[in-house]
Amino acid sequence: MKRYARMALSCLLAAVLTVPLLACGASEADKGPKKDMSAATREQLADLAKSDERLTGELENKTIKWLSTWDINSDDTGKTTPVELAIFQERYGGKIEWHQTTHSARYNDLANAINSDEGIDFFYAGDWDAFPKGAVRGMFVPYDDYLDLDSELWADVKDANDSMIWDGKHYVAAVEVTGDNCAIIYNRKTIDENGLDDPAELFEKGKWDWDAFQDMLSEFVDTSNEHYGIDSWYFEAGLSASTGVPYIGLEDGKLVNNLRNEAIEDYQNWMYDLWQSDYIALGVGDYGWTSRDYYIGEGKLLFYPCGLWTLGTEKSQWSKTFGEDVFFVPVPKYEKADEYYIPASINAYCFVKGGHNPEGVAKFLDCFRFSKVCEGAQEISDQQFIDDYEWTDEMIEMKNKMNEMALENHSFDFYNGISADVTSVLDSSEHGVRAASRGVPWSESVNSIYDQVQNYIDEINGK
């Protein structure tokens, strides 16, 4: 089976779950794993790790401290102990001590932990809001002295890591690039009953593009008959990534404002057309402003653009919402793009200022990379994902293909990593990048926000 099948979904799922707040520093480590792999599988992973020369050295301090809303150890989603964690445990005797927080309190809790010298060692960067602001504020430190991006372990993702250099240093350790940040989720039974072309078949034939996407909406949508087009919150940036042009890019170590780029304008005008045609369900007629993902399973909704974390649960959970016949494809291709771009996500981590064990974090991340480049470990990881979440082989293959596409043609958007002010401006449904899907012409929005965003960028670049 191809590579890149599993952990990104588990991480992304956990990253967006809302969990009860414990005091910063409260640890779940002593509770033990909720669902561990078999002893035989552990022994197999131990043999692979200990016999491979790519994992070197030993660890004196075997515990690393992790501040997050989610636990890297097994959790309530049905996830088994991750393969990379098991390798870290078996090869180095490593242990991850989880310090729980909430999404809204993450950075305050991190600042307090740094100031009180709690020794928090690493922090998740895959939410795209940690960089570059965490580097600018001095919350994170470079990892160049601890990870060797020129090694065989890191060769596949060296370019991705090099594209996120700030002030000449690496602050974001991306262990993998994935294509699961936003997929088009649909139900094949709905497609068949309405005589539509299966998006997966169109994708296979190279015909899955903006026009095909819109043509299907025009054939299906009939709001008077409870046939709706697109439902989901914050999907606009995901579809916009098909242009290959980020709203805020990073070039030569400087942030770049692309809001007036022609491709962005094309996309925003397209979103406005979809809104005018009633193809965007939220706010249309009696639909209201409550997302109804379960309409996919009921055959009332055609497309649900969303991260694949929503399918990263036990089958009894995802099938209840989306139905047994659920499937997904990448976002449709922008015909003018030089390549087929899809929204790329990263499994990535930052080394925290004042961490007590950066060497331990480096070894864990080496183990993560090993789980991706060692064929035997990846096969175990793939099978574990299938066992945990009961995806079909076809779903796994599509996920793999999307990961390959994202790694080959990645275009990272940093607008969430500058400041809360920039995120608020760009995510606004009044004049931000989501406004066209609410009926606001892009020309009006971009004139309203461009200079404001540029001022924020100039301030950060100046630092």
Describe the structure.
The chain is α+β, with helices and mostly antiparallel strands. It has 2 domains: 7-180 and 345-408, Periplasmic binding protein-like II (D-Maltodextrin-Binding Protein, domain 2, 3-Layer(aba) Sandwich); 183-341 and 418-462, D-Maltodextrin-Binding Protein, domain 2, CATH 3.40.190.10. It is built from 18 helices and 14 strands. It has helices at residues 7-16, 39-50, 83-92, 106-115, 133-136, 158-162, 188-193, 199-204, 210-220, 236-240, 262-276, 295-298, 315-322, 358-373, 375-389, 393-408, 420-426, 442-462; strands at residues 63-68, 95-100, 122-124, 140-141, 165-166, 169-170, 173-178, 183-187, 228-230, 248-251, 254-257, 301-306, 326-329, 345-352. Strands 1, 2, 3, 4, 7 and 14 form a 6-stranded mixed sheet that branches. The chain is globular. The termini are far apart. 49% of the residues are buried.
Key terms for this structure?
D-Maltodextrin-Binding Protein, domain 2, four-stranded mixed sheet, 463 residues, disordered N terminus, 2 domains, 18 helices, six-stranded mixed sheet, alpha+beta
Task: Break the fold down into its secondary structure elements and pairings.
Elements: H1 7-16, H2 39-50, E1 63-68, H3 83-92, E2 95-100, H4 106-115, E3 122-124, H5 133-136, E4 140-141, H6 158-162, E5 165-166, E6 169-170, E7 173-178, E8 183-187, H7 188-193, H8 199-204, H9 210-220, E9 228-230, H10 236-240, E10 248-251, E11 254-257, H11 262-276, H12 295-298, E12 301-306, H13 315-322, E13 326-329, E14 345-352, H14 358-373, H15 375-389, H16 393-408, H17 420-426, H18 442-462
Parallel strand pairs: 1-2, 1-3, 9-12
Antiparallel strand pairs: 3-14, 4-14, 5-6, 7-14, 8-12, 8-13, 10-11
Helix pairs in contact: 2-3, 3-14, 14-15
